[in-house]
Design a protein that fits this description.
Radius of gyration: 20 Å
Strand content: 15-25%
């Protein structure tokens, strides 16, 4: 009996056998704005016939600042400047271009420019609380219907180390080596804020939650992943589990040397798992390391999807699926990370058509 996309995805994530191989896409306006008519991403995926894993919905909370902290977000003269003004100082970050949903604007400057900035940013997170905001959830579920599931963020700030690495990679590496007490004190404060956010998020009616962690040895070493990221993700997982919910870990980069450490996690799935050149593994490597402990969502490198022919796409997709054997029951075929512009929609139809061949 044919399942709906919602039933199929829940079946896979619950560790059961679906009717056939699931196929999904991480699509937002970064891609759909490049298409004629700029279609809504959800409506576009419904038209494709994809099994929708909606990871780009609203946040399940609102941020409340106290202690004299003020926040501004200004776009002017082609630049976005985000500023925190506090009793202990002012910090800002800036981006080239508007910060719109689905846009990718290059960072021009980070919050942390000097050691003193850690204290200011720390003060911000010490005075940041979160209020539930689930008003959008039923509307989002109605929009998607039987076409998939809604997966909100457990926190928008990633793990504390990942947050700093993405703020300023070079600065964080140097400071964590030379001034570990200052950096680690900040990370403990951000970690506490993350857990406050996660506790509030857990009240949302969704079953699965995501964290945009961008796990990759491009940004951090396995040693730092083990020391800083793993414990934080275990706390996320424990908070959600206490509320009957499960976590999905976004990992869109080079994870080959993280596979043994990731095996210690208690998440439901790893998503946006990507082969070379964006990543450094084949999907089969994940199952060799983890067996069927986790669902793996991903499989096709986004740069390959831009340049490949339909024939090359079919060959690569079939090879990936066939390499998994019975593990394909725990696999969701998808692009790795956000789908970039210039990918022909016919390639997406082709991926879905191939997935439909693999019944169980």
């Amino acid at each position: 009996m044919e399942m709906t996309s919602k039933e199929r995805l829940n079946c896979v994530l619950e560790g059961k056998t679906p009717d056939r191989l699931a196929s999904s896409f991480l699509i937002n306006p970064y891609y759909t704005n490049s298409l004629p008519g700029k279609p809504d991403p959800i409506e576009f995926m419904k038209e494709l016939g994809a099994d929708i894993i909606d990871r780009d919905g609203p946040l399940p909370y609102k941020i409340v600042l106290s202690g004299g902290v003020e926040y501004t977000d200004v776009y002017e003269n082609g630049e976005t400047v985000r500023t925190y003004t506090t009793p202990v100082g002012t910090i800002y970050e800036s981006f080239a271009g508007p910060m719109l949903w689905g846009s990718i604007s290059a960072r021009k400057s980070s919050f942390v420019k000097e050691l003193e900035d850690y204290k200011i940013l720390q003060y911000v997170f010490e005075h940041m609380d979160f209020e539930p905001d689930y008003s959008w959830y039923e509307e989002r579920m109605e929009l998607i219907g039987d076409h998939g599931i809604v997966v909100p963020q457990a926190t928008e700030f990633r793990s504390s180390l990942e947050y700093l690495l993405e703020d300023n990679l070079q600065r964080t590496i140097i400071d964590l080596s030379e001034e570990p007490e200052i950096v680690e004190e900040f990370m403990q404060v951000l970690k506490a804020a993350n857990m406050r956010a996660c506790r509030v998020a857990a009240g949302c009616p969704a079953t699965y939650f995501n964290v945009w962690e961008d796990s990759s040895t491009t940004l951090l070493s396995p040693a730092w992943f083990e020391e800083y990221v793993l414990p934080e993700f275990q706390e996320f997982t424990d908070i959600l589990a206490a509320n009957g919910k499960k976590l999905i870990h976004h990992s869109c980069g080079k994870i080959k040397n993280l596979l043994p450490l990731m095996n210690q996690e208690s998440v439901a799935a790893f998503e946006s798992v990507t082969p070379a050149p964006v990543g450094d593994i084949q999907i089969r490597d994940c199952y060799d390391a983890w067996d069927d402990k986790f669902v793996v969502i991903g499989g096709l490198d986004p740069t390959f999807l831009i340049r490949c022919t339909l024939e090359e796409l079919e060959q690569r997709t079939v090879e990936t699926i066939e390499s998994l054997g019975d593990h394909r029951r725990r696999f969701v075929l998808a692009n790795g990370d956000s789908l970039p512009p210039r990918v022909d929609p016919q390639k997406l139809y082709k991926m879905i058509e191939i997935a439909k061949r693999y019944t169980f």
